Amino acid sequence: MSTLYVIRADSEDGWWSNDLGWVNDLESATRFEHTEFLRPLAAVPDARWVALDAHHGPTVVKVIVLGMNSSGEPEFFPCTLSVTAEQHAHGEHYQLAIEQAEEHGYQLPMIAFDEHDPAARQLGELLAWI
After folding, report:
1. How far is CA 42 from CA 39, 45, 48, 73, 126, in A?
2. Are residues 121 and 63 part of one domain?
């Protein structure tokens, strides 16, 4: 069985439904088979893809943190996390990744993004650009 995805926006305190718009319950959210669709607008631009698994067990997610290394230079810290579907749905994997980067000596400011965020999709283009 393939992974299904839903769209979550904290600013809307809810999930996206193609039929109803923003809804408060995960059960009413539209399930997507992949994340290549445009995300709907939210009050602030925080709508993000959330992977669901069949049993709501651990979800493996790749997260990249951009932070300051011990020399004070900006550097990427990649990590793979195993989180529950609920943690992933509420974006807790971003904070967990930042905490892991701090444990490895990275310092603020930091920003985290996962494999489904626009920043991750831009990495290949940026590599070709530089």
Report:
1. 9, 6, 10, 34, 27
2. yes
Q: How many CB atoms lie within 10 A of CB 107?
A: 12
72: domain range? 58-129
Pairing of strands 48-52, 21-23: unpaired
**DSSP 3-state assignment of 80?**
strand
Tens of pLDDT, residues 52-94? 765 455 577 899 999 999 999 999 999 988 787 778 888 899 9
Residue 27, SS3 per DSSP: helix
Residues in CB range of 78: below 8 A, 6 or more apart? 62, 63, 64, 65
- Judge if 38 and 63 occupy the same domain: no
Total number of domains constituting the chain: 2
